[in-house]
């Protein structure tokens, strides 16, 4: 079977206008630049997956700007719901490639699709606003996961927005994880022989975790980073981090994740402020 290639990007944080900025950077120019980079890769991806926080505030204007921007991609795109998103808005405003909904008739953004014998599952871990920025897999989503994560079947890849396991970064571990991530991990164990990996965003940082034979892989934000050092008790903007996306190769006998950082755009200097450096996920 020929390889399957996909691009993993995350946390674009579109605002309602072209001039919207966050952590000292305008997000829209970076999203447009990422699309140009993807469209000009030497190897064409079969699809692009965006693991959430398409917007910062889920407004119609922000989603329409995102839809207009991503329409320029030369490959199908799929989305996860981030803590800054609303699943109903992604359903309404953002076209996606062919898929099969896991909870049809609901707003939950959970679905499967297949490419050349590889199976892909998107989980919706967006919980109630009261637990934000944590995630939570509902009982229905856990049922979906258990139905998919069986020992037998085609190679399986899972996408969601939130980290499942601890990151050894105090603020992140206290605020950003899926509340029932350990339950999720246990539910994945029967499928580890066919599981390619769990790909996520949310932490604005490239990170890989390997546990019990399962790979968890985060993509950096396309425009603004956070630090995740073991000694940090407070979230901080990482002004030295380069924006990036991941190019993932699913070969018959191995999985390759290639991080693709890219330079800061000319005319987008970092504006360092105390508010941008720590203490909030908002502007």
From TrEMBL:
EC supergroup of this enzyme: hydrolase
E.C. number: 3.1.4.17
Alphabetized Pfam families for the sequence: Metallophos (PF00149)
Domain Calcineurin-like phosphoesterase: 6-205
GO molecular function, one term: 3',5'-cyclic-nucleotide phosphodiesterase activity
Taxonomy, superkingdom: Bacteria
Gene3D superfamilies noted in UniProt: 3.60.21.10
UniProtKB keywords: Hydrolase, Iron, Metal-binding
Sequence similarity: Belongs to the cyclic nucleotide phosphodiesterase class-III family.
Name of the protein in its database record: 3',5'-cyclic adenosine monophosphate phosphodiesterase CpdA
């Amino acid at each position: 079977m020929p390889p399957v290639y996909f691009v993993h990007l995350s946390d674009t944080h579109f605002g309602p206008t072209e001039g919207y900025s966050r952590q000292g950077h305008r997000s829209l120019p970076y999203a447009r630049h990422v699309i140009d980079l993807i469209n000009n890769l030497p190897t064409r991806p079969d699809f692009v997956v965006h693991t959430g926080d398409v917007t910062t505030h889920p407004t119609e204007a922000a989603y329409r700007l995102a839809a207009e921007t991503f329409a320029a991609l030369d490959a199908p795109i799929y989305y996860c719901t981030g803590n800054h998103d609303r699943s109903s808005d992604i359903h309404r405003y953002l076209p996606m490639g062919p898929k099969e909904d896991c909870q049809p008739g609901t707003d939950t953004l959970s679905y499967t699709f297949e490419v050349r014998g590889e199976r892909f599952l998107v989980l919706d871990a967006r919980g109630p606003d009261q637990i934000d920025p944590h995630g939570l897999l509902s009982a229905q989503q856990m049922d979906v996961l258990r139905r998919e994560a069986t020992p037998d079947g085609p190679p399986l890849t899972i996408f969601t927005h939130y980290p499942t396991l601890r990151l050894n970064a105090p603020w992140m571990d206290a605020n950003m994880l899926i509340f029932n991530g350990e339950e999720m991990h246990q539910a994945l164990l029967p499928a580890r022989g066919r599981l390619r990996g769990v790909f996520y965003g949310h932490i604005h940082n490239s990170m890989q975790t390997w546990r019990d034979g399962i790979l968890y892989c985060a993509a950096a934000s396309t425009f603004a980073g956070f630090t995740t050092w073991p000694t940090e008790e407070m979230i901080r903007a990482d002004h030295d981090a380069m924006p990036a996306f991941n190019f993932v190769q699913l070969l018959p006998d191995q999985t390759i994740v290639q991080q693709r950082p890219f330079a800061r755009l000319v005319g987008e200097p970092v504006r360092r402020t105390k508010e941008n450096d720590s203490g909030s996920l908002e502007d």
